[in-house]
Specification:
Largest sheet: 13 strands, antiparallel
Strand content: 35-45%
Shape: globular
CATH architecture: Beta Barrel
CATH topology: Porin
Distance between the termini: 41 Å
Order of helices and strands: HHHEEEEEEEEHEEEEE
């Protein structure tokens, strides 16, 4: 427990130090609030997506310019197709709504996104994610709702698990996470939330070599429920969570699952989510992005499918390049870095 807390404190100090150094550095120009707002409005007005491109192709005679229309609400609904190792070929419908709480746009950019998909592995997934800021950023509402019919390949526990230990398991999955955070100081928030993970109709096909699986050894069940309150501390000075160009994000979540709330067992976990965005140019078109997501089981016996696992964070981004659920265990340390840049002036490609 002491080692886990020390690890989180070291990461927290690193991110805060990086923020302070960035603020003092003269290599990247610091903008006033007014400048930031103007750049944000210009960015929203000039950035293009696929819908904008199609609109230009089929409505060439439209005389209204995008930049002349205030974009308090930005809505996109598009069909989606793709391929991943865990899903095979997939098709679905994706929507996103980005907006400001007030016409003056003094708040951070809010977003609500949803996705309905069906894929080659017979998985049916429906998800709604939300990150909403109220007037003057006084409150932040964060949600993650999911309903899955989900055949999944599992590979046992631990970072040394072998891909040969493939164990197909089918289940239905309901997730309901909702958090309300109140501003305590500038860019700093505290709040409470509720988290429910309900796996039901679990059916294990078993390993191809008929060996006893880690799922059986850990505690095979036909259903599992984790239900508990979350206690949250958040520091976030990004203006937009959709495509941040600069800023720091640090989120600390203590989850306390209790039987009296419907959980199968009492168990507790601690999650540290830290992100840092460093602009390399004054326009923010090229940035370095760093991210760490660390999850620790503090006590108790979480259900197998509620153990920390790659690809099961809110955005489904951990373990890029690996099959979702490829690595699973009682604790998880994850970190990545990326260089991001726009290939086109309007941001369509990048």
């Amino acid at each position: 427990m002491i080692i886990k807390v020390k690890f989180i404190l070291i990461l927290l100090i690193f991110l805060i130090s990086a923020e302070c150094l960035s603020a003092q550095s003269g290599s990247v120009k610091n903008y006033s609030t007014a400048d930031s707002l103007q750049k944000k409005e210009d960015s929203l007005a000039t950035q293009k997506d696929i819908l904008d491109l199609l609109h230009q192709l089929f409505h060439k005679k439209d005389t209204v310019k995008t930049a002349s229309v205030p974009k308090q609400f930005i809505i996109s609904v598009v069909p989606a197709a793709g391929y991943t190792l865990s899903t095979g070929l997939s098709a679905g419908l994706t929507s996103n709504v980005a907006f400001f709480a007030e016409p003056e746009e003094h708040e951070n950019l809010s977003s609500i996104n949803s996705n309905l998909a069906y894929n080659q592995r017979s998985q049916i997934t429906f998800r709604i994610g939300s990150n909403i800021w109220t007037k003057d950023n006084k409150y932040n509402l964060v949600g993650d709702w999911r309903l899955y019919k989900f055949p999944e390949n599992t590979y046992g526990l631990g970072s040394a698990s072998s891909s040969d230990a493939l164990n197909p398991i089918k289940y239905n999955f309901l997730r309901f996470y909702e958090t309300v955070l109140k501003q305590l100081a500038k860019n700093f928030y505290g709040g409470l939330g509720y988290a429910l993970d309900d796996h039901y109709n679990i059916q294990q096909n078993g390993a191809s070599n008929q060996a006893i699986t880690d799922y059986q050894l850990y505690g095979q069940t036909t259903s599992s429920i984790s239900s508990g309150l979350t206690f949250n501390l958040l520091y976030d000075n990004r203006r937009s969570s959709i495509n941040p160009r600069t800023g720091t994000y640090v989120n600390l979540i203590y989850r306390n699952n209790q039987r009296f709330l419907g959980s199968d067992d009492n168990w507790q976990s601690l999650t540290f989510d830290g992100r840092r965005y460093i602009p390399l140019t004054e326009t923010g078109k090229s940035i370095l992005a760093f991210w760490t997501l660390d999850v620790f089981t503090l006590s108790g016996h979480p259900p197998y499918f509620d153990l920390p696992s790659v690809g099961w964070d809110m955005g489904g981004n951990t373990g890029r390049g690996y099959v979702q659920g490829r690595f699973r265990g009682t604790n998880m340390l994850y970190a990545e870095g990326a260089y991001r840049t726009d290939f086109t002036r309007n941001g369509l490609l990048g």
